[in-house]
């Protein structure tokens, strides 16, 4: 019972740190020094999760882990996975993926995309991407993009096929279409990407913006073989620009607006 209390308090503090980072709200969180007495109550060798959770908390309080610290945490996550209940496994996975997205690329180091793909791949094997038998649309698209950038096309095709039925019915068609389009684009099958997106009505504004961008990029890449697509490309760029100005502030941030523009 004492060990459970220590673990619960450590994890509670780590969760508060992550939520404050995401929500940008400033609310009080117990400091690491306040938690030190708790950590000292049990030998770390006997209860490895105490050490693991304290490392996660320490990383939050220092503004995030270094690349070396993150890789070590991922290794420890896999090592200690069976000591955690399923909900804790998914929460730790969320911490690790959020930190990986924040990494900056470095020469002669494993790429951020490779770390992310390996992490998602492991989570997929351990059934951490499903909640009540369902997968949200975000992991499907994120994994597709990461794997495509690494040119793991055969794996992506199977992943989309295996999991599209697990998506929420409302988002299934849009998420599957977007993932397939990413796959076709990175395979340089631009004609298939264009056909996949034609006539699609995206119900999610973020999907719509990404879909329109992929459509324009595919048209541009197809010009060498199909110069007749130029007029369609110019018209779609103008239409997309008007759409961006209409969505500015109401739908997308200033940073995203400038990126799309």
Helix content: 55-70%
Number of strands: 0
Helix and strand string, N-terminal first? HHHHHHHHHHHHH
Structural class: mainly alpha
For the largest beta-sheet, the strand count, sense and barrel status come to: none
Quote the average pLDDT.
82
| Distance from first to last alpha carbon | 56 Å
Residue stretches low in confidence (pLDDT < 50, at least 5 long) are none
**Count of separate DSSP helical elements:** 13
Beta-strand percentage range? under 5%
| Backbone CA Rg | 22 Å
Shape label: elongated
Brief account:
The protein is mainly α and 261 residues long. 69% of the residues lie in helices and 0% in strands.
SSE layout:
Blueprint (H helix, E strand, L loop, with lengths): L1 H22 L8 H8 L8 H14 L5 H14 L5 H16 L10 H14 L11 H13 L3 H11 L5 H18 L3 H8 L7 H18 L7 H18 L6 H7 L1
Helix pairs in contact: 1-3, 3-4, 4-5, 5-6, 6-7, 7-8, 7-9, 8-9, 9-10, 9-11, 10-11, 11-12
